[in-house]
UniProtKB/TrEMBL annotation, chain A:
UniProt family annotation: Belongs to the calcineurin regulatory subunit family. CHP subfamily.
UniProt keyword list: Calcium, Cell membrane, Cytoplasm, Lipoprotein, Membrane, Metal-binding, Myristate, Nucleus, Phosphoprotein, Protein transport, Repeat, Transport
Annotated InterPro entries: Calcineurin_B_homologous, EF-hand-dom_pair, EF_Hand_1_Ca_BS, EF_hand_dom
Organism whose genome encodes this protein: Macrostomum lignano
Keyword Nucleus among UniProt keywords: yes
Top-rank taxon: Eukaryota
Entry protein name: EF-hand domain-containing protein
SMART domains named among the record's database cross-references: EFh
Entry-linked Pfam families: EF-hand_6
The keyword Transmembrane helix is annotated on this UniProt entry: no
Automatic annotation (TrEMBL), chain B:
UniProt-recorded name of the protein: Phospholipid/glycerol acyltransferase domain-containing protein
Similarity section: Belongs to the 1-acyl-sn-glycerol-3-phosphate acyltransferase family.
GO MF term (any one): glycerol-3-phosphate O-acyltransferase activity
Phospholipid/glycerol acyltransferase domain boundaries: 240-351
SMART domains: PlsC
Domain of life: Eukaryota
Subcellular location: Membrane
Keyword annotations from UniProtKB, A to Z: Acyltransferase, Lipid biosynthesis, Lipid metabolism, Membrane, Phospholipid biosynthesis, Phospholipid metabolism, Transferase, Transmembrane, Transmembrane helix
Stretches that traverse the bilayer: 12-33, 158-176, 182-200, 367-386
Pfam families: Acyltransferase (PF01553)
Pathway field: Phospholipid metabolism; Lipid metabolism
Predominant location category: membrane
Length: 200, 459
């Protein structure tokens, strides 16, 4: 119990967190209460298992990818990291291009979900993995693979065309796209589709 | 001085005995001085005066006297047991591409198809329908119990009230309630031993119809229970099946105040087991082992037998199978709805301001729970007896169960959920994950050949 109470942020910390995340004090309190509720072992931090216990997340087909991206470099998250992560998905604030919830940050997270080997590009294999996860074992492997190839190839061509590159070097299939190409492919996705609507 | 001490003790003992006797008689004759109701009114007044509301009462107070669902986020996408539910948010743009996905047309996969699942996933991390049902209900303003204090900053004035409250609850109310509860248990045990010795079944039944409800009434008074019963003309009859939402073992006491039931429940050890055995002496109940309960046919058979034997008291069954926190009704098991009897739905709603009645069996045992109940302010509950229902032509047991569940949720002001209450203990079935993948797959263009394979051995 001692470890938990030492984590209750004090007044100054709360102000800092508010400043950084754009969440109100009351929203932070609610999130804190949620954090505590999920932290069944009262460790003061959340592990993967704590989140997997949420039934709705558990049945989500991409939950493993989501959790992998969330727990990328660590085994557990404390409250600050928890809140910063969630605040990333607040709707974009006009006129604050470098804030925590900018579009680029959201797309980064999605990119990270695809990019399993963390090499900075999304390969055909990685798209294939995602498709497999979404489709389960029902998709025929060769069909799914060809869809994955098509997607990567088209996204790369699309990006190249938009940047005025007329022809592809050395012809043939392109088998990976980097973050700018991904951003370009997602250009028609509205901020609304990427955000969480916090109620005040 | 020593003599005076003994004399004082004797006097107090006699007074206490007298009070207990009076209380028992009041319970037997179902008469009340109205002291508890007055106490409740005073408490409510005190709460309003002493404690500022955590948030202004202007938000959506229409249906709120019963259940408040204070949301932190506006959901965009929910994964339910039926599929993906896309919800319109106030901040939605009108030509949202995600809305196109609700149509049944196939379309090619796009990298952004991930978004709706990610959104739903993150939203469920913040707020999901299920995990909050297994913890005490959120209160709009603090009710001066430490166990419900999540947000309130404690000023010195509040601390004062709280200390007084503690003193009242632990030092004055609790000992008295404890004595009353012991009296109730003794009354029940001795009474049922006597009745069980009598040779005439008719007489036994008659005496039990007096003994058990009065014992429960006395037990209810031990919690300072203020119970309001509505639509009493729909009370369950013999050979019927009474179904109710489940929050706590006290549900049995609440319903048992008015009539004798045959309770269907899991057999426990310890104090609970002792009470179960006591009750079983005078009336047939249906106790089963938890391992048996998964064998639905055993329960079904016993129910059918009970329902078809004339003159037996109505069965009391809690189809959720486990305790929920009284803000929602979770999936009903169909067992009680297959046995062919008349179903009498009952909705029970506890007022959370006076006690947190939810029993989280994995967090504390029965005795601890009863202790917490006896040191709460009071137990205030509304009970609605809904009109009897029978299975319609062509209606499956599951559909019947869901229909009744909807009625109970509606009447009690509870949220109607399809999720299984057993999620308190275990993870969802992987088939649910498959269900969502299935729905997604159907929207992907270019997998038509796989669709043709669907019929052969899918799943």
């Amino acid at each position: 119990m001692g470890s938990v109470s030492s984590l209750i942020p004090d007044e100054n910390q709360i102000k800092d967190i508010q400043e950084e995340t754009g969440l109100s004090k009351e929203q932070l309190q609610r999130l804190y209460s949620r954090f505590i509720a999920l932290d069944k072992q009262s460790e003061g931090s959340l592990r993967r298992e704590d989140l997997e216990r949420i039934p709705e997340l558990y049945v989500n087909p991409v939950s493993q990818f989501l959790l992998d991206a969330f727990f990328r470099d660590r085994n557990e998250i404390n409250f600050l990291e928890f809140v910063k992560f969630l605040a990333t998905f607040r709707p974009v604030d006009e006129g604050r291009p470098t804030s925590i919830n900018r579009r680029e940050a959201k797309l980064r997270f999605l990119f990270d979900m695809y990019d399993l080997d963390r090499d900075g590009v999304i390969s055909v294999d990685e798209v294939h993995r995602m498709l497999e996860e979404l489709l389960g074992r029902h998709g025929r492997p060769d069909q799914v693979l060809s869809i994955a190839r098509r997607i990567v190839h088209e996204a790369a061509l699309d990006y190249a065309a938009a940047n005025g590159v007329a022809e592809m070097p050395s012809g043939g299939q392109i088998d990976s796209i980097d973050f700018p190409a991904f951003e370009h492919a997602m250009r028609n996705v509205s901020d609304h589709q990427l955000s969480i609507c916090f109620l005040s | 001085p020593l003599e005076a001490f003994y004399w004082a003790v004797q006097l107090i003992g006699r007074l206490v005995g007298l009070v207990l006797l009076v209380a028992t008689l009041l319970a037997v004759f179902n008469f009340s001085f109205g002291i508890r109701r007055l106490y409740i009114r005073i408490l409510l007044h005190l709460f309003e005066q002493a404690v500022e509301k955590r948030r202004p009462p202007s938000r959506k107070e229409s249906s709120d006297n019963l259940s408040r669902d204070n949301r932190l986020i506006q959901r965009h996408a929910k994964l339910t047991t039926e599929g993906i539910e896309l919800l319109h948010a106030d901040c939605a743009s009108s030509d949202d591409p995600s809305k196109a996905s609700t149509s049944s047309q196939k379309r090619p996969f796009h990298l952004s198809d991930l978004c709706v699942f990610v959104q739903s996933g993150i939203e469920s991390i913040i707020e999901d329908e299920v995990t909050k049902r297994f913890a005490a209900e959120d209160l709009a303003s603090w009710n001066l119990l430490t166990r419900t204090n999540k947000y309130q900053f404690i000023s010195s004035r509040l601390t004062c009230y709280w200390v007084l409250g503690c003193f009242l609850r632990y030092c004055i109310l609790f000992p008295f309630r404890m004595l009353l509860a012991l009296t109730a248990v003794l009354y029940l045990v001795i009474g049922s031993l006597i009745i069980a010795l009598l040779p005439w079944p008719g007489l036994r039944r008659y005496l039990n119809s007096i003994l058990t409800p009065t014992a429960f009434r006395l037990f209810a008074r031990a919690f300072s229970a203020v119970l309001r019963f509505h639509d009493v003309e729909n009370m369950p009859q013999n050979n019927g099946i009474c179904v109710a939402n489940h929050t706590s073992p006290i549900d049995v006491v609440v319903l048992g105040c008015r009539q004798v039931f045959s309770i269907v429940g899991q057999s426990h050890g310890g104090f609970t087991g002792f009470m179960q055995k006591t009750l079983h002496r005078t009336s047939p109940h249906i106790w089963f082992e938890r391992s048996e309960s998964s064998d639905a046919s055993v329960v079904k058979r016993k129910l059918e037998e009970h329902v078809s034997t004339p003159g037996l008291p109505p069965v009391l069954i809690f189809p959720e199978g486990t305790c929920i926190n009284n803000t929602s009704v979770m999936m009903f098991r169909k067992g009680g709805f297959e046995a062919g009897g008349v179903v009498y739905p009952v909705a029970i709603k506890y007022d959370p301001r006076f006690a947190d009645c939810f029993w989280n069996s994995s967090a504390c045992g029965m005795v601890t729970y009863l202790f917490m109940m006896m040191t709460s302010w009071a137990i205030v509950a509304d009970v609605w007896y809904l009109p009897p229902q029978i299975q319609q032509e062509g209606e499956s047991s599951v559909a019947f169960a869901n229909r009744v569940k909807r009625q109970i949720a509606g009447r009690g002001g509870l949220v109607d959920l399809q999720w299984d209450g057993n999620l308190k203990r275990s993870k969802p079935k992987s088939s649910l994950q498959e269900q969502h993948r299935e729905a997604f797959r159907k929207r992907i263009y270019g997998l038509s050949v796989t669709d043709q394979m669907e019929g052969s051995g899918a799943g």
